Amino acid sequence: MTVSDVVELEGHIIDSGLMERAFTVVMDLGGEFDIEEFEVGTTKTAESYCRMRVIADDEATLHPILHELHQSGATLASPTDATLTPAPADNVVPDGFYSTTNHPTDVRVDGEWVGVDNIEMDCAVVVEGVERSDDGSVGVPDRADVTAETKVLNGIDAGDLVVTGDAGIRVKPPERPRDSSGPFGFMQGGVSAERPSRSLIRDIAEAIAETKAQGGRVLCVAGPAVIHSGGGPGLARLVREGYVDAISAGNGFAVHDMERSMYGTSLGMDVETMEHPRKGHKHHIYTISEVIRAGGIEAAVEEGLITEGIMYECVTNDRDFVLAGSIRDDGPLPDTITDAVEAQNAIREQAREADLVLMLSTLLHSVAVGNCLSSTTRTVCVDINPATVTQLLDRGSAQAVGMVTDVGTFVPMLAEELLE
Amino acid sequence: MTVSDVVELEGHIIDSGLMERAFTVVMDLGGEFDIEEFEVGTTKTAESYCRMRVIADDEATLHPILHELHQSGATLASPTDATLTPAPADNVVPDGFYSTTNHPTDVRVDGEWVGVDNIEMDCAVVVEGVERSDDGSVGVPDRADVTAETKVLNGIDAGDLVVTGDAGIRVKPPERPRDSSGPFGFMQGGVSAERPSRSLIRDIAEAIAETKAQGGRVLCVAGPAVIHSGGGPGLARLVREGYVDAISAGNGFAVHDMERSMYGTSLGMDVETMEHPRKGHKHHIYTISEVIRAGGIEAAVEEGLITEGIMYECVTNDRDFVLAGSIRDDGPLPDTITDAVEAQNAIREQAREADLVLMLSTLLHSVAVGNCLSSTTRTVCVDINPATVTQLLDRGSAQAVGMVTDVGTFVPMLAEELLE
Amino acid sequence: MTVSDVVELEGHIIDSGLMERAFTVVMDLGGEFDIEEFEVGTTKTAESYCRMRVIADDEATLHPILHELHQSGATLASPTDATLTPAPADNVVPDGFYSTTNHPTDVRVDGEWVGVDNIEMDCAVVVEGVERSDDGSVGVPDRADVTAETKVLNGIDAGDLVVTGDAGIRVKPPERPRDSSGPFGFMQGGVSAERPSRSLIRDIAEAIAETKAQGGRVLCVAGPAVIHSGGGPGLARLVREGYVDAISAGNGFAVHDMERSMYGTSLGMDVETMEHPRKGHKHHIYTISEVIRAGGIEAAVEEGLITEGIMYECVTNDRDFVLAGSIRDDGPLPDTITDAVEAQNAIREQAREADLVLMLSTLLHSVAVGNCLSSTTRTVCVDINPATVTQLLDRGSAQAVGMVTDVGTFVPMLAEELLE
Amino acid sequence: MTVSDVVELEGHIIDSGLMERAFTVVMDLGGEFDIEEFEVGTTKTAESYCRMRVIADDEATLHPILHELHQSGATLASPTDATLTPAPADNVVPDGFYSTTNHPTDVRVDGEWVGVDNIEMDCAVVVEGVERSDDGSVGVPDRADVTAETKVLNGIDAGDLVVTGDAGIRVKPPERPRDSSGPFGFMQGGVSAERPSRSLIRDIAEAIAETKAQGGRVLCVAGPAVIHSGGGPGLARLVREGYVDAISAGNGFAVHDMERSMYGTSLGMDVETMEHPRKGHKHHIYTISEVIRAGGIEAAVEEGLITEGIMYECVTNDRDFVLAGSIRDDGPLPDTITDAVEAQNAIREQAREADLVLMLSTLLHSVAVGNCLSSTTRTVCVDINPATVTQLLDRGSAQAVGMVTDVGTFVPMLAEELLE
């Protein structure tokens, strides 16, 4: 006695790797398959179709196979509605809740597919605009009111109707572009260890310029190394000229940036810094103290305390910034959001609005932003540590490129490409 | 016309590097010196004494030299009282505030030296038990009531009497032990890349055992890699048997640990994990969700949800733990302190009570703990990334040792050394 | 006007990734395809077949596409004989020579497929046993005498018949095993950063034990860090007990190993080493000097100079070792092959005989050995630097696993697993 | 009963760290000291003097202390002549041979100090121009003929008079410059992780320019990553314009450089390279094959095969280059020195002639060159891997600076600084 179910795969399922992944999943998880139909797209633009029966010895084997196939983009041949189960309590998911990927996703409600808003990884899907009877059946008073969106655990309220099980869900991982030319072509390349650095910086500049030309929004996630390594002035120019629309950073980043403005940087001072690494840390504390006294970053800019740098450009050009607190912070600044959940929510909003995210030398903040991104958002990750770049690219963005380089040379070169 | 001042250096000032550092500081910062008296300890145990006049062209040159000499352990030959200035507002330091090192420090109040409590780097020093007139003079109603302690910026209240300037302060960097044998001898070794791993683990075990034998307290700062790499059971045993008194970690660490307890780990599952890295992330969310439902970690242990692992051992053996939140967290757990300032305060208390700190595979939490440590606290830092180990050891602890190794092999070997 | 050619793909072409790769190659290199026939294996064990016409605007576009398809495992639908062109001079390849992959390969000579012996990456293929007329036609006096084998550039003699162009060649990249269980199942896992270290060591031990049980040969490529980190005694035991059949290393490895035997290691001495890194380097030179005086490693063992360690076990148990010289070497030892070409040839022989290669903490020697390996040889690569592991695994072995760990804890744990 | 001996320290012994090191050595190695005289230089330029009796329980304890003090720059108070012992055989050192540091060194022969030529680490010192009787006494026929020089093990001939023991040797570690300003001031800085990258590149450019202005010689040690990352054209310009006088590299570096010249680099091609890392490896083999056919690099340039790049500039501008072979090499080129000992000798000559060495992205070649350098040669080490930079700087050069950056951005920026 075996159990089985039928799944379908559609699209450019061969060159996107979906077919390979489907076969692999079945075999690795101990199942068998029987290809019931396979129509291969005979030309480059034609789509393919595959209907495959998945067979396993028992439900316990079959279920995880179907789950993985799902997450990869396969759909059940005979879809049923998604099961909706009320959350038993605030911040608690019902048993068997469906945990999202970062790919565009639909859920089936009352026979129709509804797109899930604000797709983000590892969330629950909550459906609104439906009525659920005690027997689990779902009614739809007004089709137009039905919506589905992702919710993180701390956003779930008792009674929220959460999608459970794997039925009635379809996931659409982004496909490989048909054409690898154009400025975004390079974006499929993963970590580019052996590529000429300057050419790659030129490509990234082109991607940013194109995003802006199309009215898109560029979010820059930046770590304090941007300032230490001398990337501050370049990034400030990019903010001023509108190539960077928003900054997502931490308390330290902002303090270092404003300290540069408040206490200057002569070469002599740099030399001292090199020789006495602890030196000038007092400036760091002073900077925070003065900004607190002024009443925050905007006030400090307005009273003329801060006269240049990234935070200055953000304030004077009205660019959005989020400073998320961490347990390493001195101070912190009044602008720093010290509560992690509140900070995540602010980051989530930045991430959702971004069309291209430039991650510069910060693992902590880049992971936090990356967690909130859909797989369709373009991402550029720059770090001198290859392990950081690899970790960030592994999160499954379809259009992500990594560059292992020195942010202190990267930022000025990028600014030159875009501004000169 | 030149300006000058006289400083004194006392103790094992040659082999501790203090003399070298003093000479270097004067020369690098553009001064001259004139050795007025130098008595060298003629034997290993005899102390040395040096009185040196520091000469510079102007006050602007002299001042930073004196400041650096101070921070290194030199004292003014003719000490005056510390200057006390009221903080102008909450969280704001007065101009010229003295920023602490992590070395034992005294401040001179009304002619007598007062030890600074809870010494920690980059803090202000606040003196209590004195009365300050408007002319800045300080009165001492009752000598016994005079205390001094460090305060971070967010702990400062308007009106707090903060030490400003460099006068009336003396810093005592720890000296090199006279004898490098014994279990702690190795503790001076810095990063040990070329040392036999097993011997070094044995030395670390001995240091922990000795700390416990002397009634000391061991704090373990641990990252999620401890769990991923298989170090969980070993660390749980060390907690149970009392070799680790407290855990300082993040939300993810606790969740991974409890997920292991709640969902088990067969070899088959591990293989799957390896092949499908996103797999099982649902378990991660479930774990949090269930612990929230139970009402927290202690409640989850009590209701039998969690039956083994590090958090389990902490609860059942009444070991202190702090889970500090970060913007990467899922959930978070009810026990996680999401506010960064509040979390820092909890970490600060752990750090102050610790006699030996074992930092395992976490840069974020280790830096946070390290920031709160005196230079006299023994620290062992273990990470597979040499840059992390170097960064943590650079913070100036006098008795710190780093080991670049795999925490997944380190923890079981350490547990074997201590427990078998 | 377009040009086209027809290629065939056969086998488990979907889950091996061959189909995906074929589609990708055509699209990335600017071609189109037309699937003329596609029979998908409808069950896990059934093979698939695809005949695809590749279309391009001109020969200059078509040719690289066909070349890449070839290298990936596609074959021309209407194969012709391989073109054989005489090498114009010693160490010089004819124009258009075919450069090998590391996958099993056949060339077609006089209508029949001949396997290429000693397959190795980036080589030329030389055919013997044929007669070539001036018009390029090839005659086969005796079928049984026809052989083909790889030759590196410095092995090519003027007049050697070298395969040129892409015709008449078929490449068979290894397929994914149908079954991922068993000791070698894990071998598909790539770099295992998040896997429990001890479990992975257990799997590697099992793979070595199984290789030996099947009469296979284990080659260990080892760097000096094996000795520094304390892995020497463990590796020596593995050599003695026959779990390691051959050692491929450098001059420094052997010297460090023998220095340990000649000058002993007390704990006191290790501590000194840690404090004075240059200390004992004289022992290093002495060791070499004494072995030179004795007449080589074997002689030094025989005269009782060397009484333990890896080299000792190699000599007394008659295990093969190759010491390849490098420009960093002190000495060198009389046994060290200082000529790079000669050393490569010795390494090549070791590599060809190996069934499992264990690479421990050496990039230079591992790359040299890896260059000579067929894609079907099992490889385990262990290093504390993730970049090294990634670079070694990228070379395209089908059964390669990497582990980022401390070789100083890895070797003793591996020895315990195998010997206790 | 104790044993003792008297050593003297002279110069800027405090700020050079010599006093500290001397005290530390005595204490760590189990001795006692008695300071018999100590005159401290009372001003910045005045030298200090210390006479110290070192006391130990037995000769076995005393000897290593004296040895270490020696190596650090202490001299015996009552110097005797160096002991000279004939080498027992070719490539074999006599018992107790003195192993050199990389600091300037003198040996005492017949009552007078003779400078050791070609100082290099871990060598023996061979004295010529003296006659040795069987009783070990040494006669000097003509004072003017007495010379001493370092010899590596493979340069020692039977009968060479080798310095043994520690007597009659004085080592002069370079002192800290009295003044840290000027272009070379930064050269004391070690690894500069937190320094603005562009400022540091400017400093390095200035150091190169000053070296050239003073008639010095710049040696560039370069790895293949210089070419991959796009640094080739910049380095070629530096060679052409005379800022780099010599290149020390490997076979792969030269091949990659010439391949760029022979097969061009369009953007399209780069993109392909990124997508298909093995692609174009055939070009690599072709390049070697063609250069072999031409008869070598110079011939290939002359016949117009190579028309640009670093090797081209070396040939046409008559810059010295050494290509040292390794076991990873393809080919190799006819110019590559495949024998490691021969290659070391060629590298040794380059190193001795260099006044500033720029090490770019190669650990193997940088270590080989670094092994041959005196501690007084300025060294700049650039690599993206911090562990590589640290390892290279640890070799004890007095004027070494490291920069952790991307060589693909470093080289163009350096060329711009020097040439524009």
From TrEMBL, chains A, B, C, D:
The keyword NAD applies. Residues 5-103 form the LOR/SDH bifunctional enzyme conserved domain. It holds the Pfam family ArgZ-like_C_2nd. Its cofactor is NAD(+). Its EC number is 4.3.1.12. It is an enzyme of class 4 (lyase). Signal peptide: none annotated. Residues 203-414 form the Arginine dihydrolase ArgZ/ArgE-like C-terminal second subdomain domain. It catalyses: L-ornithine = L-proline + NH4(+). InterPro entries: ArgZ/ArgE-like, ArgZ/ArgE-like_C_1st, ArgZ/ArgE-like_C_2nd, LOR/SDH_bifunc_enz_cons_dom. CDD domains: SDH_N_domain (cd12144). It comes from the Archaea. Residues 104-201 form the Arginine dihydrolase ArgZ/ArgE-like C-terminal first subdomain domain. GO terms for molecular function: nucleotide binding; ornithine cyclodeaminase activity. Belongs to the AgrE/ArgZ ornithine cyclodeaminase family. This is Ornithine cyclodeaminase.
